[in-house]
Amino acid sequence: MPKRSFPLSKVYGLLEPGPVILLTTAHRGKANVMAMSWHTMLEFEPPLVGCVVSEADFSCTALRLTRQCVINIPTADLAAQVVGCGNTSGRDGDKFEAFGLTPMPAALVAPPLIAECYASLECRVVDTRLMKRYGFFVLEVLKAWVDPACKDPRTLHHRGRGAFMVAGETVRLPSRMR
Fold first, then answer.
1. Degrees (nearest 5) of the Cα angle 10, 8, 14?
2. Which residue of 60, 75, 135, 165 is 20 to 30 Å from 66, comparing CA positions?
3. What distance in Å separates the CA atoms of residue 70 and residue 66, rounded to the nearest whole number?
């Protein structure tokens, strides 16, 4: 079957790196939630995550000034809240209240965990050298939380332009890393 040309504006949907996350930040007494899918693992231990937060995003100022955040990983049953957080700005109100999300205190950082998410990663910014040019922050995961009741999380993955897919079946294959 021959391949055909594909629009460059849609390449993102082919390479989408992982689940959509809800990034929480806190600054001047106000917590915020931002939907994000532009992130990638950079290192195993300590766990380092790279992510893009645009200067246009309300969360950028808080992340830049406080150097703290929480990566909250929702399951697909929170799709409406994820899309709602992605389609609104924290400048316009409290997203926790607007979308029925429950903030929980973190152990090591000021921004809250989101109770409804199956996993939460408390992070600190460790590198901002690519922030001005690309909005790229490098985060170190300081503490990780998971809901033990969620045995097979079905995460939401952004394909671009309002299209999402849900993570499917887990396949186990031989690996050098055990």
1. 45
2. 75
3. 12
- Give yes or no for a contact between 88 and 163, defined as CB atoms under 8 angstroms apart: no
Q: Which residue has the tokens 């671009």?
A: 160
Instruction: Render pLDDT for 131-143 as a digit per residue (tens, 0 to 9).
Output: 999 999 999 999 9
Q: What is the pLDDT of residue 3?
A: 87
Q: Kindly report the three-state secondary structure assignment for every residue of 84-110.
A: HHHCCCHHHCCHHHHCCCCEECCCCCC
The pLDDT value recorded for residue 172 is 84
Residues in the chain with pLDDT values less than 70: 16-17, 177-178
Token digits of residue 153: 């999380």
Domains, the chain, ordered by start: 20-166 (2.30.110.10)
Tokens of 21: 């996350």
Which pTM does this prediction carry? 0.92
Contact 31, 37 (CB under 8 A): no
DSSP string, 112-137: PEETTSSEEEEEEEEE-TTHHHH-EE
Q: What three-state secondary structure class fits 8?
A: helix
Residue 59 CA neighbour count, 13 Å, CB half: 27
